[in-house]
Amino acid sequence: MRTWRLRIRQLRESDRGCYMCQINTSPMKKQIGCIDVQVPPNIVDEESSADIAVQEGEDAILTCRATGHPPPRVTWKREDGDFMLLRKPGSRELIKGKISLYSTGTLLFFNLNDSFNSHISKELQINE
User: Fold this and answer.
1) Where does the source fall among the domains of life (predicted)?
2) pLDDT band at residue 27 using 50, 70 and 90 as cut-offs
């Protein structure tokens, strides 16, 4: 009995999909196997906010774009550990309305998926 194997070296995201092994007999026989390539979360700097400074009482919008597979879940929290609520669950934007002096500090953006996690920090300075 012979065994045939398909080996994909240096797997890339574009290799995700199903592959078929086929035996040309009558009737034809086949076996299908699928590959799901997981890609660690990555924060896209050029599509994310830099540190910002706003006047007290103004709104602040911080944006952080993340990619990966499975798609990352987005969470913002303060450096002191308090979670920040997003207006849209899963949104990449943190919209903080009516900024107060309590809001000042470093905010951490987390993007998580089932296999990997990563984070980035953004500084939010409040001017009186």
Assistant:
1) Eukaryota
2) very high
CA-based nearest residue to 114, from 38, 45, 20, 29: 38
Question: What is the average pLDDT value for the chain, to the nearest integer?
Answer: 73
Please state, in angstroms and as integers, the Cα–Cα distance from residue 22 to each residue in 25, 26, 34, 76, following that order.
9, 12, 15, 49
Q: Is 102 exposed, middle or buried (0-12, 13-18, 19+ CB in 10 A)?
A: exposed
Output 57 or 26, whichever has higher pLDDT. 26
List the CATH code of the domain at 39-127: 2.60.40.10
CA–CA distance, 78 with 83 (Å, rounded to integer): 6
Phi/psi zone of residue 81: left (φ > 0), alpha (ψ -120 to 50 degrees), beta? left
**Per-residue b/e over 68-80, b at no fewer than 16 CB within 10 Å?**
bbeebebbbebee
3-state secondary structure of 68: strand
φ and ψ of 33, to 5 deg: -130, 140
Question: If you average pLDDT over residues 27-56, what whole number do you get?
Answer: 82
Domain spans in the chain, listed from the N-terminal domain onward: 39-127
